[in-house]
Amino acid sequence: MSSALSLLPVGHPLTDGRTARSPLVRAARGDRPETTPVWFMRQAGRSLPEYRQSRAGVDMLEACLRPELAAEITLQPVRRHGVDAAVFFSDIVTPVLLAGVDVSIVPGRGPVLAEPVRTASDVLALRPIDPAVLQPISEAVALVVAELGDIPLVGFGGAPYTLASYLVEGGPSKEQLRTRALMKTDPHTWAALLNWCADVTGAFVRAQVQAGASIVQLFDSWAGSLSRADYQRRVAPHTRRAFDALRGFDVPKIHFGLGLSEVLDLVPPLGADVVGVDWRLPLGVAATRIGRPLPLQGNIDPALLTAPWPVLAAHVDDVLARGADLPGHILNLGHGVPPETDPTVLTRIVEYVHGR
Fold first, then answer.
1. Which of 161, 166, 199, 250 is catalytic?
2. Which among 27, 34, 84, 168 is least buried, having the fewest CB atoms inside 10 angstroms?
3. For the chain, how big is the Rg over CA atoms in Å?
4. Mean pLDDT of the chain
5. Which of 254-266 are b and which e, b meaning 16 or more Cβ less than 10 Å from the residue's Cβ?
6. Residue 45: what pLDDT?
């Protein structure tokens, strides 16, 4: 065993070979498997009737912390769609809750904090996460991995900026006005907050990897509101810190940021092995902006999931053709699965790609 693998447990799916040659892991490492691997962001739930049945009467964060239920929801899209990976069912604020912050998920709105974090004293009051509280996460991952066999599990985590925006705004915000104001007016408090977010997310994804996740993706849903200079100076170092939590674990790392077309070249130095691209840029243009050979993930336009099949199939063909020139390509959406999506459309995409 190489030293790079030394931190992975002996029974880990990458160590014992179960997932090491899976299409997803191969593509993420710059290989070209026989078929392009495909999975969907937000595939674990949302559009599936079995998800709604499983979650009936159960709070979102409570569902994330019930190992058997979280495992079941994680596995549902694999059973239904035949995708090449499961993605761990959770929420980016799950580790925030486990770290002692009073946060809940309000249906139709999203994560809401009882007390937003907006001052230096608020940040000082944040406590480091105790690894012991991540046990439900580890248990859920272990249950999933035992069922998946040679199909890899994608670990899930929120990038520090997006996590911080929920803390500062007190809930979802498309423009993050308070967040960006704090970043500009109190850079020391901002840095301390982002470091806390990076460490919380880092512990969260590390627990998933130690329990059996074969690949990890950080989601940065709100960083598209930033200027290039602010992203580079005030955000990127903290995203790198989150990825650094996986130092010594030989697992591929994916970074997906929404609206990051102008800063894609800044993403690989953060520790990402794969860059997720939203629907705004063709993959070839994204590759040129990144400026180095790197596997990319994406980028079917979620809006076309409701289009007639010939239109959607032509779009999928175009994305695959643009991905053919890359060192590796993972087919995915350019954002998450919309809740109103007909699940049979996702299954049809997977069958279509696998049948090529």
1. 166
2. 34
3. 19
4. 96
5. bbbbbbbeebbeb
6. 81
Model pLDDT for residues 127-151, shown as the tens digit of each residue: 999 999 999 999 999 999 999 999 9
Catalytic residue flag (residue 91): yes
User: Edge-to-edge strand order for the sheet containing 253-257?
Assistant: 86-87, 153-158, 215-220, 253-257, 274-276, 296-297, 329-330
> 315, 304 in Cβ contact below 8 A?
yes
- Kindly name the residue from 29, 46, 178, 289 that is annotated as catalytic: 46
C-alpha–C-alpha distance, residues 169 and 176, integer Å: 7
The answer to whether residue 206 is catalytic is no
Q: Are 89 and 70 in contact (CB under 8 A)?
A: yes
Pairing type for strands 153-158 and 215-220 reads: parallel
pLDDT tier at 44, thresholds 50, 70, 90:
confident
CB 234 within 8 A of CB 270: no
130 tagged catalytic:
no
According to DSSP, the β-strands at 253-257 and 103-106 are unpaired
Q: What was the pLDDT predicted at 4?
A: 43
**Residue 265 annotated in active site:** no
8 A C-beta contact, residue 133 and residue 97: no
Is 301 in the active site? no
Catalytic residue among 18, 26, 42, 180: 42
Could you tell me the maximum CA-CA distance found in the chain, to the nearest angstrom?
A: 57
- Active-site hit among 55, 180, 234, 241: 55
* pTM for the full predicted model: 0.96
Q: Which of 26, 80, 84, 91 is catalytic?
A: 91
Cβ count within 10 A of residue 252:
25
Buried/exposed code over 277-305 (b: 16+ C-beta within 10 A; e: otherwise) = bbbbbbbeebbebbeeebbbbbbbbbebb
